[in-house]
Amino acid sequence: MGAVVTVTAADGHEFSAYRAGRPDAARAVVVVQEIFGITPYIRAVCDAFAAQGYQAIAPALFDRARRDAILPYDSAGLQEGLKLRAEVGQEHALRDLVAAADMLTTEKKGIVGFCWGGKLAWEAACHTKAFAAAVAWYGGGIAETRSQVPNCPVQLHFGGEDAHIPAEDVDAIRAAHEEIEIFTYEGADHGFGCTDRPSYNEPAATLAMQRTLSFFEHWL
Question: I want to staple 20 with a disulfide (CB 3.0 to 4.6 A). Which of 2, 99, 150, 181 is the partner?
């Protein structure tokens, strides 16, 4: 089990983060939240990485708008999350991700994000040099910024039945970045990795995590 720590961003903003794993672990990863906050699921992801020998930290990105915001996995939670996301803004979110990475003690650091966090993992790969590898699970909106060039290797995971991210978007990303590993999971919907969502798909989630760990093992 991990613990809640306080992180200070470059602009002086203090925010909380869930940290797990030994501080001297050989690999390290920033885990980026969904649109619902630092939920028990996101903490469990950190714990799972810790069990694999990682330092893991999940910054509470909503703290800039509302501290300790944990939202339900329903339409009301989604709408509230979208509102908070807009209040935080991408620039501030990226600043907090870099600050979280600075808490990790390894030379090379990875980043993995889910949903909104998947988009942010992509943006962090493109707009910062804090990470040696980036993985995004069902990151919506990546297609719209596919002309960007990442500063590190990237791996992307999408659900084949994800109405929020149509196949045309995935194809567009693939066409723009032949160097990026992109996996699509047949029968999987948006949020297929989250054990607390109705869309959880155990086979797809298990395979995607295996691929994520192999990717980080290679680059970190």
Answer: 2
The angle that helices 116-127 and 90-102 make with each other, rounded to 10 degrees, is: 80
- The verdict on whether 127 is a catalytic residue reads no
Catalytic residue among 46, 63, 96, 115: 115
Tokens matching residue 111: 């980043």
Q: What phi and psi, each to the nearest 5 degrees, are found at residue 185?
A: -110, 110
190 is an active site residue:
yes
Q: What is the CATH number of domain 3-219?
A: 3.40.50.1820
Contact yes or no for 154/136 (Cβ under 8 A): yes
Tell me the torsion sign for CA atoms 103, 156, 120, 172: positive
Strands 14-20 and 3-8: antiparallel
Rounded to two decimals, what is the model's pTM? 0.98
Q: How does pLDDT run across 23-65, given as a tens digit for each residue?
A: 999 999 999 999 999 999 999 999 999 999 999 999 999 999 9
- Which residue, 104, 5, 98, is CA-closest to 54? 104
Instruction: Give, in order, the Cα–Cα distances in Å from 20 to each of 13, 48, 58, 161, 162.
Output: 22, 9, 9, 32, 31
- Domain borders along the chain are 3-219
Choosing from 127, 157, 177, 190, which is the catalytic residue? 190
For the record, the structure tokens of 182 come out as 């992109």
Is 152 labeled as catalytic in the residue annotation? no
The vertex-95 CA angle with 214 and 122, nearest 5°, equals: 40
